[in-house]
Amino acid sequence: MADEELHKTPTDGQTEVEASVTVEEAEPTTADQGKGAHDDHPTLAEAATYVENDEIPLGKIQSVLDSTVDESQLTPQMRRMMQRQKENSKRVEESIKGTKANPSWYVPLFCTLMVIGLVWAVVFYLTNNTYPIPGIGFWNLAIAFGFILVGFLMTVGWR
Q1: Band of residue 17 on the pLDDT scale cut at 50, 70, 90
Q2: Least-confidence region, from 38-52, 97-111, 120-134, 135-149
Q3: Lower Cβ count inside 10 Å, N or C end of the chain?
Q4: Which domain holds residue 24?
Q5: 128 with 92, same domain?
Q6: How many domains, the chain?
Q7: Do 69 and 129 share a structural domain?
Q8: How would you classify residue 135: left for phi > 0, otherwise alpha for psi between -120 and 50, otherwise beta?
Q9: b/e map of 13-28 (b: 16 or more CB within 10 Å)?
Q10: For residue 30, what are the CA distances in angstroms to 33, 66, 71, 83, 117?
Q11: d(Cα 57, Cα 124) in Å, to the nearest integer?
Q12: How far apart are CA 91 and CA 35, in angstroms?
């Protein structure tokens, strides 16, 4: 049903080509006529050149595009789609703000702990159960697995 609504053609006899208006053919609205070149919102063409030159963030471009849309000319499906897009953008921004990151030393530390544990166990087996700490025997394996376990438990808390 939703696909049928999205693919309907205009009912007044126009084809899609006749009903669409390009940016060059669009006449400025009364709100656009009072704006000068030094306003806060650049025109659509200026915004496009800004994006190519990486001068302004894409969020500002999106606000320009949103402000140039005349909602009275949109179909109900397009209005719902734009509303859903705004809600999704808001939800993503809120989830990003709530995300906590680990300090920069966290990942190298747990990787190092796991590698130390692995090297400890390899040295123990290659030296016929005598080193890294002579005299404690198979407790060397417990130490090696302890390093590996602590490193692995740190990976669980990695954000």
Answers
A1: very low
A2: 38-52
A3: N
A4: 2-97
A5: no
A6: 2
A7: no
A8: left
A9: eeeeeeeeeeeeeeee
A10: 5, 17, 15, 25, 72
A11: 56
A12: 33
